[in-house]
Amino acid sequence: MGKRVAIVGSGQTYHKSARLDVNGIELIHEAVTRALEDTQLTLKDIDAVVIGNMDHFEGINYVDTWSVDGSGAYMKPIFKVTTGGTTGSTVAMAGYYTAASGLFDTVLAIGWEKNSESDTTGAIITAFDPIWDRPAFAGAVAGLAVEASVYMHQYGITEEDAARVSVRDRRHATKNPHAHLRGEISIEDVMKSPMLSYPVKLLDMCPRTDGACAVIFSAEGRAEKITDKPAWVWATATRHNYVYIGDWEPTAGLKTLESASREVYQKVGIREPLKEIDVMELYLPYSFAGLSWIESLGLCGKGQAPRLLWDGVTDMGGELPINLSGGVISCNPIGATALIRVAEAAMHIQGKAGQRQVPDAKVALATGFGGCFWSDIMIMGKEKK
């Protein structure tokens, strides 16, 4: 059995639509520097590095080699993971398992992206087999729109119900100095925004962001010496179930998330997630996911998510606050996006979340999403398990 591992600190850049003032190496360096400052560590204290981004988007491979001046991995073990939109959560899990292995005590996990220098839609299209699997609807938006349409038809969900998710996350973002989009919006704003692919409108969707995040994982014995408030990783699960995008069937709910959440709940003994988890940071790339996917997480029955949203259950101060950082709808540096979810969840356990802090948070959950409707989950807590 591996060692128990905690998140001891993290650092983020201030995310924007375009960081023209820095290159990729410098962007990575900002996040790493802030994570080291947060933990009062130096690069000498880091035993290994894990890094990831959507290298196919920028068309530049081998980030683990050319970014060493930014990551600080000179003469240290480093490896890259890239798993589509779940890259950030996969980086987090790789950092966790590397520290748990017993080979390294303290591991630096880095996710980053310069979306201003990439072509997301072009990259998504050319990622698929050109004969058997290339999607005709092109890019991410229309695929999500298919899922949203099925969900609306099956359960009578409205566009206004989904808009409530965007309103919540953008309101939460006003408390997060690192968020990309920090202005409040209304239901009317969402409904009047340009239609992208029915029923998904501009303000239903996440932005494209430049930014980076770094999270430091440390094994027991070392973690307690770094901080007196570690966020212990209790369990992880990943579901990259599909080989081809055509294997995914448009259904209401995210099947991979349902399966992954059942696994982590069973591992840590959670039976009623709505009551037993204090805060969630979810990878919700568009508003309808904030309804359908919380049903997949077992927070309520199928088709019942709008009630939780309208009743304020998931708002700041509610029974189970979701995306107090502003979430993906407010900030989306893709290779870092899911790692930010992990960092933000851990900050609540550590009491470092500032104006968005959940008082006395003991259990937090973070998710990643991407690719062929993949899902990752990490659950962490104040106590060791």
Could you walk me through the main structural features you see in this protein, from its secondary elements to its overall organization?
It contains 16 helices and 11 strands. The protein has 385 residues and is α/β, with parallel strands linked by helices. The chain has 2 domains: 133 residues, Thiolase/Chalcone synthase (Peroxisomal Thiolase, Chain A, domain 1, 3-Layer(aba) Sandwich); 226 residues, Thiolase/Chalcone synthase (Peroxisomal Thiolase, Chain A, domain 1), CATH 3.40.47. Helix 5 crosses helix 16. The chain starts with a strand and ends with a strand. The model has no long low-confidence stretch (mean pLDDT 94).
SSE diagram, text form:
Elements: E1 5-12, H1 24-39, E2 48-52, H2 55-58, H3 63-66, H4 68-71, E3 78-80, H5 87-100, E4 106-114, H6 120-126, H7 139-155, H8 159-173, H9 187-192, E5 195-197, E6 200-201, E7 210-219, H10 223-226, E8 231-239, H11 255-268, H12 273-276, E9 279-281, H13 289-296, H14 305-310, H15 327-330, H16 334-350, E10 363-370, E11 374-381
Helix pairs in contact: 5-16
Please summarize what this structure is.
The protein has 16 helices and eleven strands. By secondary structure, the protein is of the alpha/beta class.
List its traits:
two-stranded antiparallel sheet; Peroxisomal Thiolase, Chain A, domain 1; globular; alpha/beta; 16 helices; single chain; nine-stranded mixed β-sheet; 385 residues
Strand content: 15-25%
Shape summary: globular
Helix content: 25-40%
| CATH H-tier superfamily of the largest domain | Thiolase/Chalcone synthase
The count of DSSP E runs of length 2 or more, i.e. the number of strands, is 11
What gap, in angstroms, lies between the N and C termini?
13 Å
SS content category:
alpha/beta
Count of discrete alpha- or pi-helical segments spanning 4 or more residues? 16
Rg over CA atoms: 19 Å
Task: Indicate the CATH architecture of the largest domain.
Answer: 3-Layer(aba) Sandwich
* The CATH C-level class name of the largest domain: Alpha Beta
Question: How is the largest sheet built, in terms of strand order?
Answer: 3-2-4-7-1-8-11-10-9
Count of domain modules: 2
